[in-house]
Amino acid sequence: MAKPQFNTPALVLDLDRLKANIAEMARACSQAGVRLRPHTKTHKMPEIAKLQVAAGAQGITCAKLGEAEVMANAGIDDILIAYPLWGEDKLRRLAQLRERARVIVSLDSLEVAEGLSRFSTDHDPLEIYFEIDTGQHRMGLPPTTQTAELIARVNDLSAVKVIGLMTHAGHAYKAHTEDEAQSVVMRELEDLTSVQLRCLDLGVPLTELSVGSTPSVRRELSTAGITEVRPGTYVFNDTTMMNLGVAKEETCALHVVATVVSRPSDDRFVVDAGTKSLTSDGVGRANWIKIRNRADLAMEFLSEEHGVGALLEGSGNLDIGDQLELIPSHACPVVNLFDEAHIVRAGSVVDHWRVAGRGKSQ
Questions:
Q1: Strand, helix or coil at 231?
Q2: For residue 111, what pLDDT is reported?
Q3: Residues 156 and 193 grouped into a single domain
Q4: Residue 159 and residue 265: Cα distance in Å, rounded?
Q5: How many domains does the chain contain in total?
Q6: Do residue 126 and residue 163 come from a single domain?
Q7: 254-to-136, 291, 294 alpha-carbon distances in Å
């Protein structure tokens, strides 16, 4: 069957692979007795969020309020905003969002909690996850007695209720061995449970321990005590997940189609997708962009609108006008660079989905 020709660069999703990835993660979570709250920052499309919920997800996770509004507009009614909300505009929008959905908000400071409390007086107490730093050193407070005491102060505010602890094992991406990867997960659990016990001693029972990252999630599912996981990239996968051993090319549901627009030398080609389609994530890493079905080709570098590749020894034909399927290094920011995704099944385009959450960074 001839492949469809696209106006390129084009974001293309394989529907069967997408659904298989969603089903596999939902099944793994169900078997482990752990709730799945997938992170929609990866796909930013309500159609995919609905597939995840239909497969068994408890609700969804969003990075920003704007993304949450998009999902609520589409009927998703259980949303974690895994980001502190600051400023009167955002707090007013949060109040409106709570009219349509259950909303949980994460934070790691008294100042943010006080702002949320002031704007939550017309509703039931706003549910809070308090973020703990378990090794990534991005957000979250350390797992100390002082942190537990601060959580108790937050919980004493009149219009918020701390229901659990949250962390993100982003540093799992840097684990090079099985022992290192397992160590990341064990530290997560140890740090979270230590704060949970300290909070219980202070009269604040916390029932939720929420963790998440696609590289670490399967180990987290086998770790007693975790109640919720928030992976995102698993819906598509990418070459980073392949290199970490948690995905294969056949489980990568996303690629960017690009057209060969120049053959300036026998050993070089140029496609019409650069960093504005593929991002600069992963540049310089081995196999950072994978070209499907063309092991004889390798991408070398990107500028804004140009992707420059090499023909390896023994390469076959490659002509101007040929279209190549590029699996990116990092699926999440790639999606945010496109207005729509072409949905393919068995080699045919079956739908087009708008990337409705694109640019919703406020």
A1: coil
A2: 97
A3: yes
A4: 66
A5: 2
A6: yes
A7: 27, 12, 16
Domain that holds residue 344: 247-354
Judge contact between 204 and 245, C-beta under 8 A: no
Q: Which two tokens stand for residue 253?
A: 């549901």
Please answer whether residues 59 and 75 qualify as being in contact, where contact means their C-beta atoms are separated by less than 8 angstroms: no
Question: Quick one: 206 and 269 in the same domain?
Answer: no
Q: Dig out the tokens for 215 from the structure.
A: 């590289």
Domain boundary among 195, 213, 235: 235
Same domain, 211 and 82: yes
Contact 17, 253 (CB under 8 A): yes
CA dihedral 215, 217, 223, 228 (to 10 degrees): 150
User: The domain that contains 121 carries what CATH number?
Assistant: 3.20.20.10
Q: How do residues 271-324 score in pLDDT, each as one tens digit? A: 999 999 999 999 878 889 999 999 999 999 999 999 999 999 888 899 999 999
The secondary structure of 102-156 as a DSSP string is: EEEEEES-HHHHHHHHHT-TTSSPEEEEEEB-SSS-SSSB-SSHHHHHHHHHHHT
User: Would you mind telling me the total number of residues written for the chain in this entry?
Assistant: 362
Residue-wise pLDDT tens digits, 83-133: 999 999 999 999 999 999 999 999 999 999 999 998 877 778 999 999 999
Rounded to whole angstroms, the Cα distance separating 297 from 308 reads: 11
Q: Mark whether 186 and 231 lie in a shared domain.
A: yes
Enter the DSSP assignment of 3: P
Whole-number Å distance between alpha carbons of 277 and 11 = 9
In a shared domain, residues 170 and 291: no
- 70 belongs to a structural domain: yes
Q: What is the CATH number of the domain that holds 309?
A: 2.40.37.20
Res. 358 pLDDT band, cuts 50 70 90: very high
Instruction: Tell whether 10 is covered by a domain.
Output: no
Residue 28, CB-side half-sphere exposure with 13 Å CA sphere: 21
Whole-number Å distance between alpha carbons of 9 and 257 = 6
| CA-based torsion, 104, 108, 112, 114: positive or negative | positive
Same domain for 262 and 181: no
Are both 99 and 163 inside the same structural domain? Answer: yes
